[in-house]
Amino acid sequence: MTKYSSQSKLLAAIDCIIFGFDGQELKILLIKRGFEPKRGQWSLMGGFIKKNEGLEEGAVRILNQLTGLEGIYLEQLYAFGEPGRDPIERTISVAYFALIDIHQYENQLSREYHAEWFNLTKFPRLIFDHNNMVEMAKEKLRYKAGMHPILFELLPPKFTIPQLQTLYEEVYSTSFDKRNFSRKVLSTGLLIKQKEKDKINSKKGAYYYKLDKRNYERKFQSFLNIIPNSHKHW
């Protein structure tokens, strides 16, 4: 069997940027690294790809192993391969970002690796090039959210329009006009109005809505652009 004997051997890893929404703030899930180098410092969820598994398969396995999470939105972001990014061995990392509703998965999170949620504007310095990964993931999320309805992945099964607006404002670090935002969102045909109201966070009571899953899948690629001029092209 022919081998590439004259070529350098590289390690391949996965790093996962996990975004979560608690109804008020957009957050990121981090762990303290359990081995050297940088043991005890804050890190993204990550691990090495096994010899006989694909990238997405490895990402799903690593995410489940470190957090206990499964069946969540996961998308490949970018490959990071600067020669000195890992001081031990030459390692290429393929980054993925994930989206979850924090409350829905609170009890599912593994405690073994001491995972902790941080506000996306106030998280600690991360190891290696993980901060660069987070910044790129934030830009990708903003771009995707303007063209596809992926932010619904961060919401509970039933939610209010004000809650949805808060989420968009967190993602884009800006404020939207309430009437205009509500009009645009309702015009997508993706929401099913419920009879119940949220009377805890609103004096008048805001109606709950549910996502129309059929329309979500059908309109995913042709979503009404709620956010104009959505940053970079990917």
Question: How would you characterize this protein structure?
Answer:
It is a single chain. The chain has 5 helices and 10 strands; from the N terminus they run ββββαβββαβααββα. The chain is of the alpha+beta class and 234 residues long. It folds into 2 domains: 11-146, Nucleoside Triphosphate Pyrophosphohydrolase (Alpha-Beta Complex), CATH 3.90.79.10; 149-222, Orthogonal Bundle (Arc Repressor Mutant, subunit A), CATH 1.10.10. The strands form 2 sheets. Strands 1, 2, 3, 4, 5, 6 and 7 form a 7-stranded mixed β-sheet that branches. A hairpin with a 7-residue loop joins β9 (191-198) and β10. The chain is elongated and about 70 Å long. The N and C termini lie far apart (39 Å). The model is unreliable at 230-234 (pLDDT under 50).
State the main characteristics.
single chain, 234 residues, alpha+beta, Arc Repressor Mutant, subunit A, 2 domains, three-stranded antiparallel beta sheet, elongated
